[in-house]
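Pasting as-is:
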Amino acid sequence: MGNTRVTAVVVTMAAALLAAGCGPGGAGTGSATAPASAAPAASASAAPASTTGPFGRRAVYDEIEAVVTAAKLPGFEMSQFIESSPSRSATAPATEKERVVRRAVACTASWSTWAGPLDGTKEGFDKAVHDLRSRGWAAGKPEEETEDTGDVVLRVWLTKRGWTMGAMRRVMRDGAAADNIVFFATEDACMDRFTDEERDLLGW
C-alpha cells in the first residue's frame, strides 16, 4: 500500500478501534489466533528480536510494546488483545460495517498514547523508532506535515516481513498540552483482501 492509503487506514482504524471499545479498558474483538488474556509485560530491553519463525499480529505487537516500554513512553494497548468484556467479542456484528471493521482489526497491531507535557517525549519516540530499526524494520525517510489546525505531524514508515507500520507523533498546536503518539501496523496481504465496497465502508 502507498503511504497515502496507509495514512487513511491508520486514521480510520484507530478511530474504529476506539469506537469498538478497544481502547483503555475497552472490549477487544478477539480472533482465532489472539490470546484472550492481556499481553504479558514487555521487557525493558529492546534487544533485536529473532528474524525467523512466525511473524503475526502477536509478534508484531510484542515488538511495538517492547520498544515503547524501553523508550519509557506512557500509553495503552489499542489492540484486540485486551478482553475485558468477552461477551462483547462473542456477539455477532450488528451491521455490515462492524463486520468489516472486525475483519480489519484482525489485520492490525497497534499502540497509542496521549502524552502530557512530559520531558523526553520526542526523545522517547525517536528511540522507539531506532529500536524498531534495530529489530529489522526497514524505515523510510521521516516526513513532517503541518496541518490546517497548526498541528505538526511527524511520520516514519517502516516495513518488515509483510507488515507496514506507521510511526506517528502529532504535536498539538491548538492549546492542548499533549502529544499524540501512534504505532499502527497492518499486514499487507490481509489488507489486500478487502473489496472496493468494503474499503468504502471503512473510509479508505
